[in-house]
Amino acid sequence: MTKKTTRDIIIQTLSVAVVAFVFQLIWEYSQCGPFYIMDDDLAGHTRLMISATVGDMNMSLLLLWMLMFINKDVNWLIGKWHRHDYIIMVFYALFISFFFEIHALHTGRWGYNPDTMPIIPGTPIGWLPVIQLLILFPIIFMVSRKVYIQLTKGR
Questions:
Q1: Which keywords appear in this protein's UniProt record, sorted alphabetically (predicted)?
Q2: Mean pLDDT over residues 5-10, rounded?
Q3: pLDDT tens figures, 37-85
Q4: 46, 54, 101, 149: which is deepest, by most CB within 10 A?
């Protein structure tokens, strides 16, 4: 791997990490109050929000690297995306959101407000955490692409 390739991967990864952290943090805090029930005090709540956001950011990075690997293109983020890329994003978002929500609900990490959280029929899972990943993954990548292009302009 060349120095340029390594630099490109690092800059793309950092771009996605920062954009994902910001977008996921905004989403987490926006939905938490009205749709979730948590027993923690303010410090515990803040730790949980940061932990969830870092987890969401890591899921975004894993998806980025997976798409780079599947497409055999370290510059996948700035290249042409194909239908299979979107299909992978959708299935990854569904799998990850179901897995982590089931785990969090089962372990009591959080619960849903029954008056406000819409539940996916036939499951104990709320719609919002699933929609979160379905919507935010492509948006994060689109914004990260723009950030990467700005950071590398004139190179």
A1: Membrane, Transmembrane, Transmembrane helix
A2: 91
A3: 666 666 766 777 888 899 999 999 999 999 999 999 999 999 999 999 9
A4: 101
Whether the full predicted model's pTM is greater than 0.70, yes or no, is: yes
Residue with tokens 């955490």: 129
Q: 133 near 55, Cβ under 8 Å?
A: no
DSSP state of 78: G
81 DSSP 8-state letter: -
Amino acid at 38: M
Q: Which amino acid is at 29?
A: Y
Please compute Rg for the chain using Cα positions. Answer: 17
What is the residue whose two structure tokens read 């009205």?
Answer: 34
Domain interval for residue 35:
3-152
Q: What is the number of domains present in the chain? A: 1
- Dmax (CA) of the chain: 55
> Which residues are registered as beta bridge partners of 111?
37
Lowest-confidence segment of 3-7, 30-34, 97-101 by average pLDDT:
30-34
